[in-house]
Amino acid sequence: MVNDKNVLTDEIIKLLNGGTAHATFDDAIAGLPTQHRGQIPNGLPYSIWQLVEHIRIALWDMLEFSKDGNHQSPKWPDGYWVKDEAPENDEAWDKSLNQIKTNLAEMIDLVKTGDLFTQIPHGDGQTLLREALQAADHTAYHVAEIIIIRRLLGTWES
């Protein structure tokens, strides 16, 4: 007999990792030329760097909210978007990417071990299931934007 919770957990993890129906975060940034991290194509409001940082901040916030009743979310919307169009240096870029990977792994561990259905005590109806699905959906949405920017910059090979 199939364990429904295991099936659901496995599907959430697939969704968090991305790639089942679309490109992953790692796919979207692979081979990105350094000089394109901070470019903003004509008519768009942000750069790839700003999207990467937005993904990092939002994922961190959803993770921390899911596990820490004392967590304070950034002020919306300013606290979720950086003003700098480009990272200060390669170290800042790598630090952001590493935090995304670390927080994603921690969210996956929380999904594996946590109660998906009980409301988070310090929330207003949220569950771990909702936070994990929101994290996956949010990241996928912005991964698509990264790919669009790369297409506009001529740096995406599908």
From TrEMBL:
Superkingdom per UniProt: Bacteria
Gene3D superfamilies: dinb family like domain
Pfam families tied to this protein: DinB_2 (PF12867)
DinB-like domain: residues covered: 22-146
First and last residue of the signal peptide: none
Protein name in UniProt: DinB family protein
Organism: Mucilaginibacter aquatilis
Species lineage: Bacteria, Pseudomonadati, Bacteroidota, Sphingobacteriia, Sphingobacteriales
